[in-house]
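Protocol step 4 of 5: obtain the predicted structure for the target chain.
Materials: sequence only (see below). No template structures provided, no constraints applied. The aim of this step is simply to have a reference model before the mutagenesis design in step 5. Sequence pasted as it appears in the construct record:
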Amino acid sequence: MKTIYHAADSRGHADHGWLKSNHTFSFANYHNRARMNFGVLRVINDDYVEGGEGFGTHPHNDMEIISIPLEGDLEHRDSMGNGGIIRKGDIQVMSAGTGVTHSEFNANADRPVKLLQIWIFPREKGLLPRYGQMHIADFAKSDDFQQIVSPYKEDAGMWVNQDSWFHLADFGAGVGKTYELKKQGNGVYLFVISGQAKVGDQILHARDGYGIWDTDSFNLEAIEKSEILLMEVPMELA
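Step 4 output (structure tokens):
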């Protein structure tokens, strides 16, 4: 088993006043040649957006963009005609395909919105763009791996154009479970949303990242009540 540890305070940081963002991997003005991606996982941005502020209309193409609100309300509009608000307990997937423009704004003027924005390279390029969102809290599991993303339409969670599976682990203190990878050649990147956990001898704190590959399984244990996002992705770029 191979691993890589990214401490929370080793991430790139941007402070634009209205937007404060921490970048696990190189993004915008943060460039670190050693932190470009983890397999097809290209971006994990930990964003804080002030009340009434947001990202104006901007384009994307050939990228799977996954947004997970952690606090507050995020309003979305796009060139496909979609619009709405996502909140904690929701997940949003936008498959940019041949091209899409969208905007994202804090829906509230009096409090911030916090969210994770995650990009993965798609399995196939040049597909028609699509959009979806789901209230994943409706099928939440405690002390287990809750699947929230998969490559199959008929499977639990949102589907993406990649051989990737995302799970949320909402573990109580002392809970440990073995994660078995879904596909040979994939790796898993763990992002600790809150709490403290460990894999083997590696202790992970809030907002730490930990990549694992060249293994079929590993054990994740919560030291205290924790919420952890597991992102299984192909390790080879197409």
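Step 4 remarks: The mean pLDDT is 95. The radius of gyration is 17 Å.
Proceed to step 5.
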